Amino acid sequence: MKKCVNQRAVGSYYEKLAADFLTEHGLHIRERNYRCRMGEVDLIAMDGKYLVFVEVKYRKNGSHGNPLAAVNLQKQRTLGRVAEYYLLTHKWSENTPCRFDVVGILDGQVQWIPNAFEL
Fold it and tell me: What dihedral do alpha carbons 40, 41, 46, 49 form, nearest 10°?
C-alpha cells in the first residue's frame, strides 16, 4: 500500500508541475484529476476559446521510453469519452472547440504538445 501512496504523491507532484507550466504559458486550469465513470483526465484548462483536456505523463528516465509515447490509441479514446461526458454534464455546447494536449516530463524536463491528437 505504501508504494501506491508514494506513486500517487509523485503523480500529484508532476501534475502540479505541468499545471504550473501551462499556467505560465497562458492557460487557465479549470479542473485537476477529473474523474467520472468514463475514466479520468489529469487537467482541464482553457486556452483562449479552447477547452483543453491534458494528459500528463512522467518518466524518471528514458529506460521505460518517452512519456509522450505512453498516450496510446486506447488512452486517447478514453480521454475522448471523458471529454464528451464532461461537456454534457457541465452544460458546455457541443460546438465548444476542444483540444487534447499531452505534457511529458522526462528527467525533469517538461515537453508540451498542444493538439497532440484528434478524435
Answer: -80
In angstroms, the CA 22 to CA 47 distance is 9
Q: How far is CA 87 from CA 39, 46, 115, in A?
A: 14, 13, 18
Dist CA 5 CA 42 (whole Å): 17
Tell how strand 109-117 and strand 39-47 pair up.
unpaired
73-78 LR contacts (CB < 8 Å, sep 24+):
76/100, 76/117, 76/119, 77/119, 78/38, 78/39
Query: What predicted TM-score, i.e. pTM, was given to this entire model?
Result: 0.90
pLDDT tens digit sequence for 20-30: 999 999 999 99
- Name the strand (E) or helix (H) holding 79: helix 73-89
How far lies 16's CA from each of 72, 73, 87, 114, in Å?
Answer: 22, 25, 23, 18
- Is the Cβ–Cβ distance between 102 and 68 less than 8 Å? yes
Angle at 73 between CA 67 and CA 78, to 5 degrees: 95
